[in-house]
């Protein structure tokens, strides 16, 4: 008895073109495995991706039913292709439809503020206050930042906005002794780094770590995303120009709306 060949389903429908071989920045062979067989949904995804380029930002994508008939595939195949394009940030849900998303926000990995990074791309930054409270510094935060265990610290949590679109969630921890009037002087929708600068506090250096995570149900609700959407999480511990502890920040960014850039020198 012969053995059946195991592999992804082959898309042999003549109405579905395979992806182009290579474009600048595209994966090698545009994701086609060496054996040349690709799943049907991937071929459909490539076709919809071309449609995205033709429609432009804000363009309305045809319904799953229309795409299914156009490409001669099952609606579940179309659904999987659309789901991946949404996760990649090329499409976004709007009401009961799907539209072409704008380009991702490219945030520099530097000591520049979120405000500066968003403005450089012609977008309007904003923030919405979730909470501002104070509590004794716990052991873990003290060990990480160099603050004294039990000393009062502020916790500032805000939703990050770009052109009124929710794109992230930021939690900042800072000593009350450094900023005793944060709760009365600081405007929650403004730049925290700008507030520090106005008070003569400058950044010296920082340690930063990036990882991918899934948002908790609470975080997903605040940012307005499905819990299954991949998120980019940045942990930062900053010090001032004299090397003293300044802030501990936990920034959660939507993986479909953000990328990060840095300049390396040999």
TrEMBL record:
Coiled coil: none annotated. Keywords: DNA-binding, Transcription, Transcription regulation. InterPro entries: Bact_HTH_transcr_reg, Chorismate_lyase_/UTRA_dom_sf, Tscrpt_reg_HTH_GntR, UTRA, WH-like_DNA-bd_sf, WH_DNA-bd_sf. SUPFAM superfamilies: Chorismate lyase-like, Winged helix' DNA-binding domain. Residues 36-103 form the HTH gntR-type domain. Residues 1-32 are annotated as: Disordered. CDD domains: WHTH_GntR (cd07377). It comes from the Bacteria. It holds the Pfam family UTRA. Transmembrane segments: none annotated. PANTHER family: GNTR-FAMILY TRANSCRIPTIONAL REGULATOR, MANNOSYL-D-GLYCERATE TRANSPORT/METABOLISM SYSTEM REPRESSOR MNGR-RELATED. This is GntR family transcriptional regulator.
